[in-house]
Amino acid sequence: MARLSEIRTALETWIVAETGIAANQTPYIEDVNEFPSINVGKYNAKRIVQYYGNSQSIKTYFLSVRAYVWSDDNSITASEDACNDIERAIDGFTAAHRALGIYNAQVNDLHTDEGLFSPYGVADLNITITYEEEYT
């Protein structure tokens, strides 16, 4: 489980550095103090493990990133912009984190609240990270 925590922390740090969006530790909009901000989900993360020879395994880690925005003008556009920035950061995550054994990081799908919480905006991105790990 420590490896998953390491990858999750690296992803959060990378997104913050690449986008300038602040990180927060709560998945609930009423607890968010700073906009825009993200929460890298550790609440519903799942993994799939495939074992190979030489004590190696390939693991696939599914997690979610939630972005919170606030805009007087158009929360839908702000949410979509946050999604694009985060997706661009995740696209560069693999190459920058080969030392963690990461093979691939990609956004599987993304959704916004479509203005439901205006002037706030919420965007959810589902992410898959595939990485290598030794087993004993």
Description:
The protein is α+β, with helices and mostly antiparallel strands. Helix content is 29%, strand content 40%. The chain has two helices and six strands. It has helices spanning 2-19, 75-96, and strands spanning 22-23, 37-40, 46-52, 56-70, 102-112, 120-134. Strands 1, 2, 3, 4, 5 and 6 form a six-stranded mixed beta sheet that branches. A hairpin with a 7-residue loop joins strand 5 and strand 6. The relative contact order is 0.22.
Task: Give the arrangement of secondary structure elements.
Blueprint: H1 2-19, E1 22-23, E2 37-40, E3 46-52, E4 56-70, H2 75-96, E5 102-112, E6 120-134
Helix pairs in contact: 1-2
Short description:
This protein has 136 residues and is of the alpha+beta class.
